Amino acid sequence: PIFLCTQQQSADQLSAGSAAAGGSPELYENPWTIPNLLCVARISLSPYLGYLIVHEKFNLALGLFALAGVTDLLDGFIARNWANQKSALGSALDPLADKILISFLYISLTCADLIPGPLTAMILFRDAVLIAAVFYVRYQTVPPPRTLSKYFNPCYATAQLKPTFISKVNTAVQLVLVAASLAAPVFHYVDSAFLQTLWYITGLTTAASAYSYYLYGRNTVQVLKRGK
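^ Cardiolipin synthase (CMP-forming), sequence as received from the core. Prediction below:
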């Protein structure tokens, strides 16, 4: 029930919010947009991709990874070009989907001896800190009384996230390394200097991304104001 944001529900919630906040309606939005559904599909695909890699089915894994990449490009294109498909939830769900996908891929590629363990640990630690920060921002921006149903209600928008430029570059570099690592056993260049160079570049951009959030973290969160 809390996940079904029909117009009637939104109107009821808006009215209730106005009464509770002295005439200040709360922000509700429809979470069931095409970009958000594509993000959910990408998240759902992540464990299966990890399974394929661990079992060394690299050809199929490479094809499905390409499909996941298409969904990533498509959800961004749709959100940018159709205003009714853009949502505050999507601003958090899209990078979260990327982080979940990257986590499964890096762990499984490390198990397959295609990506070094220290690099994977570095990426996972940074992502864990960022995800914890997102949950903290959500807690801080949900007005009292804070309830679990309100906190986890995807229809209830409180903040919009804006990743830093270097973070976007880092995500792209991480995905390039994944693609190159998946292709390595298929095209026989597992021990190449090219892959090793990508390891160092990925480590550098991951560290730079973490530092950018340390410096400019407050600028990456836009708290959505409630209407008067």
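Helices lie at 7-20, 34-54, 58-81, 88-111, 117-141, 148-151, 165-187, 193-216.
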